[in-house]
Every structure is written in C-alpha cells, then in structure tokens.
Amino acid sequence: HSVTNIGLAAVSGCSSLTNMVLPFVGSQRGNTGSNTALFGYVFGSTSYDGGQKTAQYHSSSYSTYYIPSSLKSVAISDETILGYGAFDGCSMLETISLPPTLTKANTYAFRNCTGLKGVYISDLDAWWNVTFASTDANPLYYAKCLYVDGESVGDVTIPDTIGNIVPYAFYNCTNVTSVTIPS
User: Fold this and answer.
1) Which residues, in sequence order, are CB contacts of 60 under 8 Å at separation 6+?
2) Is residue 28 a contact partner of residue 22, using CB atoms and an 8 Å limit?
3) How far apart are the C-alpha atoms of 133 and 130, rounded to whole Å?
4) What's the confidence (pLDDT) of residue 179?
5) Mean of the per-residue pLDDT values for the chain?
C-alpha cells in the first residue's frame, strides 16, 4: 500500500505499453466522484502517436484522454470501489484483472469496453459479494468469460456460506456451463 496518489498524465506518451498493473483506478484509492477517478486520468489529455482518443463519462460530463491503443491488459491490485465510468470507452482492452478487495463497481464502469475477452479474478467467493450497479458495471457484459486463477470458470458450485448472490454477478458470462445452488 505504498502508492497513495498517481498524478495526472503520469504515464502519458507510453505508446508501446501492452499491459500494466495499477493499485487503483485514477488518482487515488477509493476516489469515485470525479474525472480523477477514471482510468484515462493517468494517461492525460494530450494527444500523441499511438494514443487512442477515449471519451470517458463521469458524473454529468465527458473527459477525453489518450490511452495507448497497444494496451491490451490491465490488472488492478488493490481497489475496493470502481467509480462511475472508471473504464468507460476503453475499447482497446482485452483483459482485466480485478482484486478480491473489490466490493462495488458503479454505473458505466465498463461501458463501451467492446474489446474485452476475459475477466480474471483470484477469489470466486469474493466475486459473489461485488455489487454491480448496472449491467455495464460488470466487465462480463462484454468479456463474456470469467477466469479464476487463470482457469476458465465452467461448473460453479455456490458455497453454503454465500447467503445472497448480487445482481449481475454472472451477467452475460457464457463460459459458465452449470450452476449448483445449495439448499
């Protein structure tokens, strides 16, 4: 937990970046209420060769950032809440890894992430408890495939310890082939 803030445009111009690991989305952990809570914030709003113009919606307006078109994979290592529009418009992304600390994804968190092909998590039990504010708050809306520890989820057995499955937990997840629900 040593990184507490990431500055605006901290990685601007990194046009050949293909993957990255960040502790949180935007300027600081838990920031959910402004354009500083958007993924594009760390790339900035200055155009550069290889930067894909990305409009990200927050609160009531759009911010435009330039995110490397080469960026395919992002891992968030220590976030609890994804803010409104956190990854909105990031169509270049193919995979997203989310931490077991995640408890909520707000509306539009993954809207227009049309390139997503896989969502990677390490703890399926933690996934049951993530509150998704809408269908497009869940990266499975586009990705369709959930992976736990790198393995495709196929057969799901809901543990007796899970009293409730939040709405949209497996929305559009096509690689789940069976679900066993305890009494």
Assistant:
1) none
2) no
3) 10
4) 87
5) 93
Taking the complete model, does pTM exceed 0.70, yes or no?
yes
Average pLDDT over every residue of 106-128: 95
**Is the model's pLDDT at 1 over the cut of 70?**
no
The conformational region for residue 133 under phi > 0 = left, psi -120 to 50 = alpha, else beta, is alpha
